[in-house]
Amino acid sequence: MPKIIITYICIVIGAFLQGLGMSLFLFPHNIPSGGAAGLAILMNHWVQLPLGISLWIVNFSFLILALKYFGFSWTVKTMIAVTITSVTVSYVSTLGSFLTPFFWLDLLSGAVIFGVGVGLLIRSGSSSGGMVIPTLMIAQYNDWSPGKVMLWLNFFIFLLTASVIDIPIVFYAIICQTVSTNIIDVIYHLRAPSFINTPSLGWRKK
């Protein structure tokens, strides 16, 4: 029971950090935090769906996949993480600007905080939703590093969105993902303390 409690505490902290990185440093500069936002932008451009609905469709589709392949417990943890992240972004965004005078410091700060948050979520048997779900599916199936898989998936999506949003934004998003996914890999490969419950993802081949 103590391990389960600490695991959920780590999920809360990871989701909160992810939300902070997005709302404090990335979103104010219009930098997408991942490929799910890029897919939502493409859907908005191609079929004129509102961004909110497009993002909901993307995340809902991935959660259906998560329920099928990773099981109920993992999906519930992910839903908790997504909810906490959304609440954090919504609340912090109302507090005003916390940007520094230096763009690159904002970009790196956001990438580091975001990467630590997502890394904690993955180590706690959860995820941040979005592209992390197909990333973990591919990584588990092929025994690849999740950070590298996420980087290449998001890189491909960002290239697609280059025709929709400004090229510099795509460039900044790729740099952000490069930094954050390397941090995710570092946290993923760390030996977890004995008091943290890090359950298997329960991958089932189809």
What average pLDDT do the residues reach?
Answer: 82
Main beta-sheet annotation: none
Beta-strand content estimate: under 5%
What's the total number of strands? 0
Shape: globular
End-to-end Cα distance: 32 Å
* Estimated helix fraction: over 70%
Tally of individual helices? 8
Order of helices and strands: HHHHHHHH
Q: How large, in whole angstroms, is the Cα Rg?
A: 16 Å
Q: Low-confidence parts lasting 5 or more residues at pLDDT below 50?
A: 199-206
SS-derived structural category: mainly alpha
Descriptive overview:
- Helix content is 73%, strand content 0%.
- It is built from 8 helices and no strands.
- The C terminus is likely disordered.
Key phrases:
single chain, 206 residues, mainly alpha, 8 helices, 0% strand, globular, disordered C terminus
Topology:
Layout: H1 2-26, H2 35-47, H3 51-70, H4 72-92, H5 103-123, H6 132-142, H7 146-161, H8 167-189
Helix pairs in contact: 1-4, 1-5, 2-3, 2-7, 3-4, 5-8, 6-7, 7-8
